[in-house]
Please model this.
Amino acid sequence: MGKVLIIGAGGVATVAAHKIAQNADVFTDIMIASRTKAKCDRLAAAVERATGFKGIKTAQVDADEVQQLVELLSSYKPDIVVNLALPYQDLTIMEACLQTGCNYLDTANYEPKDEAHFEYSWQWAYRERFEKAGLTAILGCGFDPGVTSIFTAYAAKHHFKEIQYLDIVDCNAGDHHKAFATNFNPEINIREITQKGLYWENGKWVETEPLEIHKDLTYPEIGPRDSYLLHHEEIESLVINYPTIKRARFWMTFGQQYLKHLEVIQNIGMSRIDEIEYEAPLADPSTCQLVNSSTVKVKIVPLQFLKAVLPNPQDLGENYEGQTSIGCRIRGIGNDGKEHTYYVYNNCSHRAAYEETGMQGVSYTTGVPAMIGAMMFLTGKWVKPGVHNVEEFDPDPFMEQLNSQGLPWHELHDVDLEL
Ligand code: NDP
Model:
């Protein structure tokens, strides 16, 4: 018996809800709760139609409000809360889980709304409270972070005595036929990409200008793609959990068209996350009709406004062609005492993801691992009171599920890593 509460009803939640319902032997009760209940109702109906699962419950909740969450969690009493809202809500949801005795899982680390900055310290600060309460919190269980950290744990467990060089490589070779769109929440995505780059080398962090370092990397079944060094959250925990790592970096591909749009967005101030004053036409709230030519001064955040006019990532799936390829390229000392290289990766087809869940590959590669993480907890394989990053658990049962839940992985030994 496994009772799960999914918070959020966006692209990733849509995939996770489908996969959770497909595994009804583990997940017996499902509730989807989010800010807009109508979206939860539509998602629940679509999942029931696609999977035959019956009785998915829905609820409205503002996950910025601990009290609202506490009321929902106390009445539904889930075994685990799968947080697929935005990184801004991580701490309020963790707090509510502690107050109501629920276990917790998410796919992205906490980020304050008013500062484009993410790090684990805010969530790691909850370790003692979760441990004392006998509750498990699983952090970063999407693809990256998530599967990439589990790939690293698997390499450490089976192939290496000492991991010395780790490069996480994320390629989206898909084409959605839009001039510009992001593959997950545009606000979170643009905040991430426009930050300074950061990587770990010889015991310290090295900062770069945004997208300063890039090189062509060759991806399986795809070919060479220009790949940019970014700061990415899983590096922070991996260099702590694998202290033999001398250098750890994260690379992501971007096309020239995407980068051109991003540059313009930044140059014209549309990526700003501070409030600006905007003179808006005044409407009568009861009729929504404009009142003469009157105006009212309102505060808006340019990046949030941009999100409202960009294509919704959830609508990209229908015409999305191509695939993603995400993996880890590792060099270190193997179990035989000699130097070895290792490349472990998954390729995911946007079309196959869409046909199964109605969402594109980026939502799919995040939602499937979120489901598997919750499954690991409910089947007793990943139960460890405290707050943990995914590489702290046994990778084997998770890796096995990846193969049967739609994200098969492949290994290459002693190949040229290009890095
Ligand atoms: P979406 O924007 O599509 O969905 C977010 C959902 O959260 C929406 O349903 C939204 O509600 C809901 N929400 C937002 N604020 C609140 C709130 N205060 N209370 C309740 N619900 C709220 O995002 P995605 O599905 O693309 O991404 C979901 C998460 O997955 C993000 O945290 C993202 O960073 C993470 N992610 C992780 C990846 C990984 O590999 N680890 C990769 C891609 C994404 P509404 O519809 O009303 O706005």
Notes: Residues 8-13, 34-36, 39, 61-64, 84-87, 89, 107-108, 142-146, 184-185, 188, 313-314, 362, 366 surround NDP (CB under 6 Å). Residues 95 and 370 are 20 Å apart (CA to CA). The two ends are 46 Å apart (CA to CA).
